[in-house]
Amino acid sequence: MGKFILQRLLQTAGLLLGISLIAFGLMSLTPGDPAEIQLRSDGVQPSPEAVAAARVEMGLDKPLYAQYGHWLWRALHGDLGLSFGSGRPVTEELLSRLPATLLLTASAIALLLLAALPIGVVSALHPGGWIDRIGRTAALLSVSMPGYWLGLLLLYYGAVKLKWFPVTGLDGISSVPLPALTLAFGLAGAYIRLIRAGMLDVLRQSYVRSARARGLRETVVVGSHALRNALLPTATLLGIHFGQLLGGAVVVETIFAWPGLGKYAVDAIFSKDFIVIQGYVLFMAVSVVTVNLLTDIGYRLLDPRIRLGRPA
């Protein structure tokens, strides 16, 4: 396990280095002078002398490799620069919005598992039954219904017509259900199908038949012998989706005006705040690769027979 973690950390370092190059390239490849854009954010037309002074202050008069080295060194120390719009450190802005995104992500995953897990298991135990038919229909709707359309429907009926929930923003726990349900429903189809397929495969294995032949209760056979192995692919998908959701469900956060990372990134794109975009890309890259590493380690804990990092 220790060797595997070390290997993955080295791979992660190389991956993050490549991503940092891409993130830094956003500034040099985008049109416009960042120094002039920053000065114009104050609502005045800067003079050429002011732009030149700002370029020197921001280090834009140096070669690109020197700019990248300076930016990367500061990023390694948690300094992602200052936002053009607010003038605040980007790291503080990201961290201040992270709890809202974590709340939305955790709520969506909880709703997802509460629905997909029992439907997938029961569908596998009774293939062709009415729960199986409901599950397959729900999975089809989930993968075919656009998330923005469902979000607008929930917003209109749940908040505007029935007035059960706040319209937008984060105003207490009552603001969570609508955006969380929008995210969860969009992912539920894949999980229902995956859990059902995994359970059907495991239930055909000889050790499950042996457990039943020994007279064990069906709940013990399903819960202790079948479900744990059937959930291994689900754990992988869950880790991938968790990392993606941490990046901010951009559409959902925009529809519900959710004060999370996704909406923050969208606002930065519209305002051409390149410093924020750079910091967001790097911050999300670190989050995603960290979650993926923890998912791989969790694989080893779920099934000790798996030997990570070794050839089969």
Automatic annotation (TrEMBL):
Occurrences of domain ABC transmembrane type-1 (ranges)? 98-295
Q: Which InterPro entries match?
A: BPD_transp_1_N, MetI-like, MetI-like_sf, Opp2B
Bilayer topology reads: Multi-pass membrane protein
* Pfam families referenced in this protein's UniProt entry, alphabetically: BPD_transp_1, BPD_transp_1_N
What name appears for this protein in its UniProt entry?
Nickel import system permease protein NikB
Record keyword Cell wall biogenesis/degradation present: no
Give me the segments passing through the membrane: 12-30, 102-125, 137-158, 178-195, 237-259, 279-302
Species in which this protein is naturally found: Cohnella cellulosilytica
What does the annotation say about its assembly with partners? The complex is composed of two ATP-binding proteins (NikD and NikE), two transmembrane proteins (NikB and NikC) and a solute-binding protein (NikA).
Family from the record: Belongs to the binding-protein-dependent transport system permease family. OppBC subfamily.
Q: Gene3D superfamilies, from UniProt? A: MetI-like
Q: Which UniProt keywords apply?
A: Cell membrane, Ion transport, Membrane, Nickel, Nickel transport, Transmembrane, Transmembrane helix, Transport
Is Cell membrane one of the keywords UniProt gives this record?
A: yes
Annotated compartments: Cell membrane
